[in-house]
Amino acid sequence: MSLQVFATLLLGGVAVLDATPIAQTLLSQPLVTATLLGAIWGEWRVALEVGVVLQILAASTSPIGARTPEDYASGGVVGAGVALAIVLRRHLLMLDDAAALVGVLAGLVTATFGVPLIKWQRRRNEGLSRWCEAEVRRGDGGATGAAQRAGVALAFAAGAAYCAACLALGVWLLGPLAGRHSLRLARAWTLAQPLWIGLGLAQLLQAFVQRRLIRAALFAMAMLAAWLLLMMTGH
Amino acid sequence: MGRLKSRDLWRMALRSLFLQATFNYERQQGLGWAWALQPALERLYPDPVELRERLTEHTAYFNTQPTLASLALGAVAALEEGRAAGEGPDAAALARIKSVLGSSLAALGDRLFWFTLRPVAALLGVLVALGGSWLGAVALWVCYNLFHLGVRFLGVGWGYRAGTAVLDPAKRRRFERLTGLLGLLGTVLTGVTTAWLLVPGGEPRPLVFQTVLAAGLGLGLVAAARPRPSPTEWALGVGALCVAATWFR
């Protein structure tokens, strides 16, 4: 268990690094982190359910220009982590759904409250950047590398610490709630899951279609064709 | 003064992965840019005073879409090579070219990578994951990184060879066509994902699920027309409402 928690926090730090400071390979996306956590904790179903919902909502959140987007890197790790920590205590189907609901909620709250932390880091980086320029002017060419390393270390430490705090708070607050009221929360999940997915899909659809009639028709045709194909080839 | 070697270009490409390591509101990618360009500057300016001057200049404000920054890095390295040989533009002109390149590449890259390829990769991953497979994450990652890491590693060389012509009208049109095609693919994938959610594996979902999914789509289209609240805030509100609705029923 402690090894799994440690791996989750490590993944939190790595995901935060991937989101902005290093490479941006989408390793930080909720579906990827939830799948990795599913492998680490040995529970795929709940991890994927949380990952899919958070992924659809995260897909329309873009880091354009100086805009500080919601922190879905931490949100994805904390959301799946909270759900898995709850579900692995007692394995009941109803608890699975309750855990998925509180996991997604924990992920959304973590993503929202992660914004001030990202802003704080960027302000710290301003100081680092000014220090670096002064050092380079003095003739220390190695200052650029030192500043880069400091930026990476700060992002990793802040990301891992934030994930640890949110994970602990989430399990402590929501764990007993999910255990006691699993029936109510499981009912809420049957409502919230399609609503969240619909909400996210609509954001993506709007971004792809861009008020073009032909694309809207293409969406309708693709949906209809896939629906017919599934009905014919399915049961 | 020496000419740049392919080893320098590879070092720049690797360092470009850290372009945003010290991203900040004041200079944005400025420091990461200087660090990524440093191998080229060290090769081109053996005089420490001149090297210091050029490196300091490159720590100034710079911002572009991080994947396509590789192209700008290569193009600016080529300009620096010309400048070091006494043929290229002066420092002020080079700064202007760098700024124009940054904003042009950002306009193309934001649309291609952030608004199109990333959602397409996410939808592909979600579609696979909806079938209960862990391969969804792999599909997402591979689909995005075939382009992303490909451009990141090869882009410096392309930019270096093309110089300021890195964004000539023909290449710009090719980028825009690719964005358009990916947009069409994204539209189709959204349709297929919606169909899969309604009848996964040919087994229709309960009517309540289908109705609530349609309500979510409608709400999402209304929400997408406004900048505030953000989709995440909408999702939080919707989640809280669902919990309240079942709690007090």
Write the layout of secondary structure elements.
The complex is a heterodimer of chains A (235) and B (249).
Chain A: H1 2-19, H2 30-41, H3 44-58, H4 72-87, H5 93-137, H6 143-180, H7 182-209, H8 213-233
Helix pairs in contact in A: 1-2, 1-4, 1-6, 2-3, 2-4, 3-4, 3-5, 3-7, 4-5, 4-6, 5-6, 5-7
Chain B: H1 6-16, H2 30-44, H3 48-58, H4 69-84, H5 91-130, H6 135-162, H7 169-198, H8 207-224, H9 231-247
Helix pairs in contact in B: 1-2, 1-4, 1-6, 2-3, 2-4, 4-5, 4-6, 5-6, 5-7
Kindly summarize this structure in a few lines:
The complex is a heterodimer of chains A (235) and B (249). Chain A has 235 residues and is an all-alpha fold.
Describe this structure in words.
The complex is a heterodimer of chains A (235) and B (249). Chain A has 235 residues and is mainly alpha-helical. Helix content of chain A is 82%, strand content 0%. With 249 residues, chain B is mainly alpha-helical. Chain B folds into two domains: 200 residues, no CATH class; 44 residues, no CATH class. Chain B has nine helices and no strands. The longest helix of chain B has 40 residues. The mean pLDDT of chain B is 94. At the A-B interface, helix 2, helix 3, helix 5, helix 6 and helix 7 of A face helix 2, helix 3, helix 5, helix 6 and helix 7 of B.
